[in-house]
Specification:
Blueprint lengths: L15 E5 L7 H17 L3 E5 L8 H4 L4 E4 L10 H9 L8 H8 L1 H10 L7 E4 L5 H8 L3 E5 L9 E3 L5 H9 L5 E5 L3 E11 L4 E2 L3 E4 L7 H5 L5 E3 L6 H18 L2 E11 L4 E7 L10 H7 L4 H10 L14
Parallel strand pairs: 1-2, 1-3
Antiparallel strand pairs: 4-7, 5-6, 5-7, 8-9, 8-10, 8-12, 10-11, 12-13
Helix pairs in contact: 1-11
Length: 326
């Protein structure tokens, strides 16, 4: 595994590091947990790290904060969708994770799925729902059960498993509160997997796959972050060939979207062993229940080492020496 925290990284060489956390999305609570974990890890290694909450501080203050780089621990809108990345590009402050376009694409589930499909990558069939959609026609086309969820949210917020056509309107309205576009997706009956990816382009590589075993297969917001009843298997217990297939698929999905730095691909595995891509998380959780640190630990990388490596790779789409000069 080439992605390791280099022992010779001097904490002072990272300069003043901002940890962006909290924010205004529906995932604020989780982001605060992620960000505080990252902040503690950086400070434990002697990094000059400081929190910055865009919901409580004007983002214009980023320019005056004197950050040499930032770790984006924001989740969801205004943090994972290319908006904060665009501002950091304008300010010339290197940041962790994917750039503007890849972040925006990965946040938009229908756009992600269309791009994956155009490259022949497997992902469940879907439809975008709006108030005037013929829900019965969608059910007839995609079949039941269906997953209905906002097109641009994470952490299973606003998600409903629809088992009867009569539930479609209520499921749509629940998701539509959070997003003008709502996604209906064919349900894959099988094992739920996730696979972190690190690096960029040809150097991108997958960390070990994690198999998620939730109570009654209900891996919802509560079971993701606030209970200890969900089991996480890492090693995944998959046959080696299948593990490698899932990892290769995750890397290809990462590359197709143009992601960089780090991300996490969520995958469903059918009962006959066929993997289907669900979504790509470009600012994964870093809480005590989070999965990327778990996969890193499986290959001997501690939480603190992983955080140091991620922040050391902070960069820009447009590198500083390419900025226009008057």
């Amino acid at each position: 595994m080439s992605f390791v925290a280099h022992p010779n990284i001097d904490p002072k060489s990272l300069g003043k590091v901002g940890v962006l956390l909290g924010g205004r999305s529906a995932e604020r609570e989780v982001s605060l947990m992620s960000g505080n974990g990252v902040l503690a890890a950086l400070r434990a290694r002697g990094v000059d790290a400081h929190p910055f909450d865009p919901a409580l501080q004007p983002v214009a203050e980023l320019a005056a904060a004197g950050f040499d780089r930032v770790f984006i621990a924001l989740h969801g809108r205004y943090g994972e969708d290319g908006t904060i990345q665009g501002m950091l590009e304008m300010l010339g402050i290197p940041y962790t994770g994917s750039g503007v376009l890849a972040s925006a694409l990965a946040m938009d589930k229908p756009a992600t799925k269309r791009l994956w499909m155009s490259h022949g990558l497997p992902t469940p069939r879907f439809a975008v729902l709006r108030p005037d959609t013929d829900f019965n026609a969608v059910v007839a086309d995609l079949g039941l059960p269906l997953i209905v969820k906002p097109a641009r949210e994470g952490s299973s917020i606003g998600l409903t498993k629809v088992t009867d056509a009569s539930q479609m309107r209520e499921a749509f309205e629940r998701a539509a509160v959070l997003d003008d576009d709502v996604l209906a997706e064919s349900f894959i009956d099988g094992a739920e997997l996730t696979c972190p990816i690190v690096g960029e382009g040809a150097t991108a590589e997958a960390l070990p796959v994690i198999k998620i075993v939730a109570p009654e297969s209900n891996y919802d917001y509560q079971n993701k972050y606030f209970t200890d009843v969900t089991q996480y298997l890492c090693p995944s217990t998959l046959p080696e060939a299948l593990e490698n297939e899932v990892r290769a698929l995750a890397v290809e999905a990462f590359r197709v979207l143009g992601c960089r730095g780090w991300a996490r691909a969520d995958v469903m595995l059918t009962r006959d062993g066929k993997p289907y891509l669900l979504e790509m998380n470009t600012s994964p959780g870093m809480t005590g229940h989070s999965l990327v640190p778990m996969a890193a630990r499986a290959v001997g990388i501690s939480y603190e080492d992983f955080v140091i490596q991620v922040v050391a790779q902070a960069t820009l789409d447009l590198h500083p020496n390419e900025h226009w000069k008057p």
